[in-house]
Write a structure and sequence with these properties.
mainly beta, 5-stranded mixed β-sheet
């Protein structure tokens, strides 16, 4: 990626041009994450030496000891950031976002704990409480807080690309997400900090970048935090491939596309592959430096601008693990969310954005590159070869004991080993080849294993033959509220299955005939979740599923179509095309009779004896502007549910598309979906 795209992605960073400088000084120092141990891909604690993980480098301002001070008046001071928090983390219960702002305003009117300057924390302030070594809740020990809930807490920061949502922190694990403002979360009031300068012994928090206010007392109205330098980003005078962030003092690679550099294979990586890729860059003195590291969660989050709409398609690994379950954190630069993902997930990889400088250490690790390699499709007995490199980024020698290939299709792969039995000096490397010779048609996979005295290295091998075959899909099912994996979920893919999730919430559906398929996940105690996937022959795909906990009673639980994605979507009025809508019903012991689909022009009953019903509706002819589809379930005894709205809306007339600031985001089946940046132009979706 060129520097221009770095700037585009740093639409998160309000910088339109880059300027060359020769000196700079950081405005703030980022805090350390709290992670002091290291984990393997299965979540086991390991020796940190040479790993390059957050727990090994521990970049950032070290936490004071003790970090928190009890003020003996119902408040607690964080000596790391200087912020003063209410000691009671649940004084108001769960509220919608607006009611949370109103609640804090009420605290000021009544001088809660003797103060009238409380505020709902912005997302930077709220996430600063997270200890990345803790879960349930993810706050530090000995913090003097009471009633901390392992649940979501509101920030005052609105999601700028979809303003009906606001940022939250899930104190179960420390994830940063976006919630519909009509959902309910907890409130944790905060007051002004005690620090006023930028002494490196503590960590002042910067502004989030949000400058538009969506309600009095929110982030855009208050704009709390250290002001960003202007310009914030400048090109290094000594190297045009390096961008300096004058806010944090960190130096970032200007190319964010995870490029291939010599033998360091670029593209998307697993978490271990990301660490290995950075180690490889250091052996190649990338851009003139050998101290690059994978950024920790605080460093990568510092690049998110909460005043910009995000950049679709870019997500990057951090070096920070979750303390349980074999997950690591990544940052999604489309939404600004920070979520956990399986470290060894072979279906979905993320990019790598190297960083250096700041209060960090040198990255020393031994690595194998690449860690995932797909061979071209061949006919049986044809051969293709790929080169693999072992890189010793340690300061000491490393002994290579041997290499082997294991797995179901190990016989389809062979080694030309030039590394076994050798001693690699510090910063040295050696190479060997893996040959793929398929013995039959279909898909083949195996694992390359390299044994060293510094630990074992692995790479995933895959290939196919004859150009035909079935598809594979898998993923993780998570509780929509806690974000934790859910086991025992029944998953069907088209007519295939069911497949049951394991203790890590994972499902795997193999030997699937490709095409457009419906994916359904169901478990007692949860609402049924539906999604749509398209699989090609020989494709391996991932589809994670969010499963909402069930509410109780006779009701319509969901109304979805193939365009449903978890967020509202829109159709233009008068554009004629048919959409299949499926309603899921919890009959709660009643005898099913029919499901009524209500449009702007009429109602249509569909007889059913099961837990769902489907109706094909022409959205162009059946709905007026701002119209929504409502669904009602009617039992055999005549009782009926409350109406459930579908997750779409028909917009106002076509001329408004050009007269007002709409953004077209996708074309579908001759119609369009688009988002409306002015909420007054259409009715809200319930």
């Amino acid at each position: 990626m060129k520097k221009s795209l770095f700037v585009t992605v740093l639409l998160f960073l309000a910088c339109n041009f880059l300027f060359t400088i020769s000196t700079y000084a950081a405005t703030i120092q980022l805090p350390a994450t709290g992670q002091a141990v290291c984990y393997d891909v299965s979540g086991n604690i390991i020796d940190c030496a040479g790993t390059g993980e957050d727990g090994a480098i521990r970049a950032g301002v070290a936490w004071p000891n003790p970090r928190f001070m009890d003020n003996n008046n119902g408040t607690v001071t964080d000596k790391l950031t200087g912020l003063v928090w209410a000691a009671n983390a649940n004084s108001g219960g769960k509220l919608t976002w607006q009611l949370a702002l109103d609640y804090v305003n009420g605290l000021n009117n009544t001088r809660y704990l003797g103060f009238n300057d409380w505020r709902l924390p912005n997302i930077s302030e709220l996430s600063s409480l997270v200890d990345r070594s803790k879960v349930m809740p993810s706050v530090p020990d000995n913090s003097f807080f009471i009633n901390v809930q392992s649940d979501t807490y509101w920030s005052s920061t609105t999601m700028s690309s979809y303003t009906l949502y606001a940022a939250v922190v899930g104190m179960q694990s420390g994830y940063i997400g976006n919630y519909d403002k009509y959902n309910q979360s907890y409130v944790w009031p905060v007051r002004a900090g005690i620090y006023t300068s930028t002494d490196a012994s503590y960590a002042l928090l910067p502004k989030t970048g949000q400058s538009i206010s969506y309600s009095p007392g929110d982030d855009g109205a208050l704009q709390i935090g250290v002001t960003w330098p202007s310009p914030r980003f400048e090109t290094s005078a000594s190297n045009q491939g390096v961008i300096i962030d004058k806010l944090t003092g960190l130096e970032w690679s200007a190319d964010i596309d995870t490029p291939t550099v010599d033998i360091c294979e670029g593209g998307l990586h697993t978490w271990a592959g990301a660490l290995g890729y950075v180690a490889c860059l250091n052996t190649k003195n990338y851009l003139g430096y050998s101290d690059w590291r994978l950024p920790n969660i605080n460093e990568l989050q510092s690049l998110v601008d909460r005043g910009s709409d995000g950049y679709y398609g870019y997500a990057f690994w951090t070096s920070t693990s979750t303390p349980i379950g074999g997950y690591a954190w990544y940052v999604d630069f489309n939404s600004g969310e920070t979520l956990g993902h399986l470290k060894d997930d072979l279906w979905t990889g993320f990019g790598v954005w190297p960083v250096r400088g700041g209060q960090g250490g040198t990255l020393d690790v031994i690595g194998l590159s690449p860690t995932v390699s797909a061979f071209p499709s061949l006919y049986p007995n044809e051969t293709a070869s790929k080169t693999f490199t072992i890189i010793n980024g340690l300061s000491a020698n490393a002994n290579i004991a041997g290499a082997s290939i294991t797995g179901t299709n190990a016989a389809d792969f062979s080694l030309s080993d030039g590394c076994s039995g050798t001693t690699l000096a510090s910063k040295a490397s050696c190479t060997f080849s893996v040959n793929f010779t398929p013995l039959s048609c279909g898909t083949q996979s195996a694992t390359l294993n390299v044994t060293t005295d510094q630990g074992n290295l692995t790479a995933v091998l895959s290939g196919s033959s004859c150009g035909v075959g079935t598809a594979t899909i898998g993923g993780i099912v998570r509780d929509a509220t806690t974000k934790l994996p859910v086991s025992g979920v029944s998953v069907t893919v088209g007519s295939n299955g069911s497949y049951t999730t394991d203790t890590s919430g994972r499902y795997l559906a193999e030997n699937i005939i490709g095409g457009a398929l419906s994916l359904v996940a169901a478990k007692s105690g949860y609402e049924t979740a539906r999604a749509n996937v398209t699989l090609a022959p020989l494709q391996s795909a991932q589809k994670d599923i969010s499963l909402p906990p069930a509410t109780i009673g006779f009701r319509v639980t969901a109304v979805t179509s193939k365009y449903s994605s978890g967020k509202p979507y829109y159709f233009l009025p008068g554009v004629s095309f048919n959409v299949d809508f499926t309603a899921d019903i919890n009959w709660n012991g009643k005898t099913p009779s029919k499901v009524r689909f209500v449009t702007s022009k009429g109602s249509y009953d569909v007889a059913t004896s099961g837990s769902s019903a489907t109706k094909t509706i022409n959205v162009g002819s059946e709905f007026d502007a701002c119209g929504v589809l409502q669904v009602i379930a009617i039992a055999a005894d005549g009782s009926q549910t409350a109406a459930k709205n579908a997750d779409f809306m028909v917009t106002q007339n076509m001329y408004d598309l050009f007269a007002n600031p709409y953004t077209v985001v996708n074309g579908i089946d001759g119609g369009f979906t688009y988002k409306n940046t002015l909420a007054s132009h259409c009715c809200p979706i319930n």
